[in-house]
Design goal:
Number of strands: 47
Shape: globular
CATH class of the largest domain: Mainly Beta
CATH superfamily of the largest domain: TolB, C-terminal domain
Number of domains: 4
Largest sheet: 10 strands, mixed
Number of helices: 5
CATH architecture of the largest domain: 6 Propeller
Structural class: mainly beta
CATH topology of the largest domain: Neuraminidase
Helix content: under 10%
């Protein structure tokens, strides 16, 4: 592999020949927070020389007290090589002074030494973009903004890089182990291209690919990506049917990052082609070069350099028989934040446990039913609930998780009337509730801290048994616990698929039966009520959505702001259990949202796969997937607003490019050969961003709604097992970390703050800093607590608002 830069940063022969830039500020704010790679101290950089007594030129007006003089403001860095440095100087009223130096993004670079009149800025060589350097003297400071531009090229997988070598398939078993190669499936990274003619063709394609119908199947144009996510698998289609080599380009609009990589056919494709030749089933394109991942190390640099107002563009060029086609391209947004926490979900067909009893995989052997967990950044899931068994008693199915990640509730041995187990996720302890509570807590709503449970009347009972009345319990209950009495609404109430808001102040549910004032429950009303925990009082019932048979509205999940819900809008067919999709029932649904202020429900167009202008779906289709916009189910919203967006996790049976493009209803392992790589099921978990700025002031209130679609195209959640039907995901916070433990953001810490040490070391949880404000994803009680005045305090964490961008 080779790296090639545009040009190296070089020192000019004499500083006196420079036209340096001067930046000054009197009394500028200088927050000491470290968020998403920021740094307040120096450190890590090469020591600066003594330098001249003053960088010549520039503004030395005595009315400007503290000034920062930079040798240059644009720093070009070649990927894979040691970057150069930029000299900086601080002056007060034009005279050099020894100041204290800091940067606002330690992932871009650092300053060394951190005190003095002549210092050096050293790029990390891993992140591009603007970085603000500050020189402080007493209560005054001056600032300069430097821009680091990373660039390079690559030919083939870098085998000496652990992240890239791990994405090279060594055997067919690697393709389905864990979450598949690199956690996203496919056949991994390809080798270097040794044919110079092919390399030359990729640089200057002869055709644009239109005649060959060259198109990207996945990801989707306009997707919003969070930082810290595994790199996606690029998948494409064309009449060529195969390729000899490809070229991928990634670049930001501002030039902060530019990279291209050329790759030959992954070697494992030959083994797949041989397997396909000897098989009577499977995909006709098995063994073809039709997908390739973006290298994880490159993806991290690209997404850390890009942002919502500095788009990331991907280009793909393919070559076959000496002719190159393309490039085709997409444009993406990157949120300035990392999604942390863990996703807990139900897997039907997991390879991590065998407990299906006499119900065997079509290819032979038992499969597993359990609750699995994916922690951010991991390439495969872990088994949380489920035990090996020969009689299905080890199966663990329907589950709920408290928003703070403290407790998981799961039904044992199937759905509905079955024993309930509760998991203390912080301590790793498991207990089974007394038989008194069999099935009582199926589909119950857990309070955010996991100490209350509001039961669901929708039990999916066999034989048409009518739904029971909902009740409220302290959770977990003792064998003799009684329901908690409430006031404000009738006790004889049937609430299906209820959910608490992240702050515990609201409860939403499908109104199955009963009456609250003028609202009568028929199973076609989505209702929300306010909840006062101190007095156990419900009040202010209002409609969020109303449907007509065969439609239903259920599985509501609140946005972190608590002022709107995303919900499952069941479309068809009409069944006694509208939210359950058993074998043979081809349920259709989409995801809608509604606000508490007006109760106006509308579909999330982009999330579901429909163009915002109403011109139809953008999702790729085939005979098995004619319209995937109606195959979206069971939403759950991450309780923390991250990077300027809310994040919705949901189940979908849509195509996953050309990895899973067969029968969308094929998700029960006893009906297909789950050992066959060509029969990957499409029932998987997906994630989509919703704009915080979809509302005029960042928060919902009466009269300020923008009724345009606030959602964006979704992306596949990495690390899922490919040959398994996955559903009902909950993305929740991990048990909080104590001061001194490593962190990536404040929402991981018990005290709510993640800061960099004075020597610019690793980020660690810290106590609340004295007389300081909170950065994004750090703890707050009001908007005024946030360092950035444009941030909002949403669900107790400061949340930035992404800029509005054209769709």
């Amino acid at each position: 592999m080779t790296w090639v830069a545009d040009r190296r940063l070089t020192w000019r022969a004499g500083l006196a020949l420079l036209a340096p830039l001067i930046f000054w500020c009197s009394g500028c704010a200088n927050h000491d927070a470290a968020q998403d790679g920021t740094s307040t101290g120096a450190g890590g950089g090469a020591e600066a020389g003594n330098g001249p007594t003053l960088l010549t030129g520039g503004n030395t007006s005595t009315s400007q007290r503290i000034a920062v003089i930079a040798e240059t403001t644009t720093i070009k860095v070649e990927l894979g090589k040691a970057p150069g440095t930029v000299r900086l100087q601080a002056t007060e009223d034009g005279a050099p002074v020894a100041a204290t130096w800091s940067v606002d993004r330690g992932d871009i670079g650092s300053i060394s030494p951190n005190t003095g009149r002549n210092v050096a800025f050293l790029p990390t060589g891993k992140t591009g973009g603007p970085v603000r350097v500050t020189a402080s003297l007493g209560n005054e400071s001056g600032e300069a903004t430097l821009v680091v531009q990373l660039s390079g090229t690559q030919n083939g997988a870098q085998v000496d890089d652990p992240t890239e070598s791990a994405a090279i398939a060594q055997s067919l078993a690697d393709l389905t182990r864990g979450g598949g190669i690199a956690g996203v499936g496919g056949e991994g990274l390809g080798p270097a291209i040794t044919d110079q003619a092919t390399l030359t063709a990729l640089l200057a394609p002869q055709e644009d690919g239109a005649s060959q119908k060259l198109a990207l199947l996945y990801p989707y144009d306009g997707t919003v990506w969070p930082r810290g996510m595994l790199a996606p698998l690029l998948m494409w289609d064309s009449s060529l049917g195969d390729a000899d080599a490809i070229r991928i380009g990634l670049s930001t609009s501002s030039g902060s990052f530019a990279w291209s990589g050329s790759f030959g056919r992954p070697g494992i494709l030959e083994a797949l082609a041989a397997e396909q030749a000897s098989s009577t089933a499977g995909s006709e394109h098995l063994g073809h070069f039709i997908r390739h991942p973006i290298p994880q190390d490159i993806w991290e640099m690209a997404t850390n350099s890009a942002s919502a107002d500095d788009r990331l563009t991907v280009e793909l060029t393919v070559a076959k028989d000496g002719v190159a086609y393309g490039p085709i391209s997409q444009s993406w947004l990157v949120a300035q934040g990392r999604l942390t926490g863990t996703v807990y979900y139900n897997s039907y067909g997991t390879a991590l446990v065998a407990n299906s009893g006499d119900q065997l995989k079509k290819g032979g052997g038992e499969f597993g039913v359990g609750v699995l967990a994916i922690r951010s950044g991991e390439t495969g899931p872990k088994l949380i609930a489920g035990q090996p068994s020969k009689d299905k008693t080890g199966c663990r199915g329907c589950h709920m998780v408290a928003a703070n990640g403290s407790r998981l509730l799961v039904q044992k041995a199937g759905v509905g009337y079955a024993p309930t187990a509760t998991y203390d996720l912080a301590q790793g302890q498991v207990s089974t509730l007394a038989s008194t509570w069999d099935a009582v807590f199926a589909w119950a709503a857990l309070s955010p801290d996991g100490t209350l449970a509001f039961t669901s009347s929708l039990k999916f009972a066999v034989g048409g048994q009518p739904p029971a009345f909902s009740q409220l319990y302290a959770f977990p209950p003792t064998p003799t616990s009684s329901p908690i009495e409430w006031s404000g609404i009738p006790s004889e109430l049937s609430a299906g698929t209820p959910a608490f808001s992240p702050d515990g102040k609201h409860l939403a549910f499908d109104f199955m039966g009963g009456a609250i004032g003028s609202i009568t429950g028929t199973g076609h009303e989505l209702v929300v009520v306010d909840f006062d925990r101190s007095s156990m009082t419900f009040s202010n019932a209002r409609l969020l959505a109303t449907t007509r048979d065969p439609e239903n509205a259920g599985f509501p999940s609140f946005l972190p702001s608590g002022d709107a819900v995303v919900f499952h809008h069941h479309l068809t067919p009409s069944t006694p259990t509208p939210f359950l999709s058993p074998n043979g029932v081809h349920q259709q649904a989409r995801l809608d949202w509604s606000d508490l202020a007006t109760g106006t429900a509308e579909p999330l167009l982009a999330l579901n796969g429909t163009r915002a202008d109403g011109s139809g779906p953008y999702l790729p289709s085939n005979d098995a997937h004619p319209d995937d916009t109606v195959l979206n189910f069971e939403p759950n919203v991450n309780p923390v607003a991250t990077g300027g967006y809310f994040w919705v996790l949901f189940t979908s049976r849509r195509r996953y490019g050309n990895v899973a493009d067969g029968d969308p209803w094929q998700s029960s392992p006893d009906s297909y050969d789950s050992s066959d790589y060509a029969q990957v099921t499409s029932k998987k978990l997906w994630v989509a961003a919703i704009d915080i700025n979809g509302f005029t002031d960042g928060k919902l209130s009466a009269g300020n709604l923008k009724r345009t679609d606030p959602s964006h195209p979704a992306f596949y959640l990495p690390a899922q097992e490919l040959i398994a039907g996955n559903s009902r995901g909950f993305w929740v916070l991990d048990p909080c970390r104590q001061n001194g433990e490593n962190c990536a953001s404040g929402d991981q810490c018990c005290a709510g703050y993640c800061r960099r040490s004075a020597d610019a070391g690793t980020l660690a949880c810290s106590p609340p800093p004295k007389a300081s404000c909170a950065e994004a994803q750090e703890a707050c009680q009001s908007d005024a607590d946030c360092c950035d005045s444009t941030n909002f305090c949403i669900n107790d964490f400061c949340s930035l608002v992404a800029p509005e961008v054209p769709r």
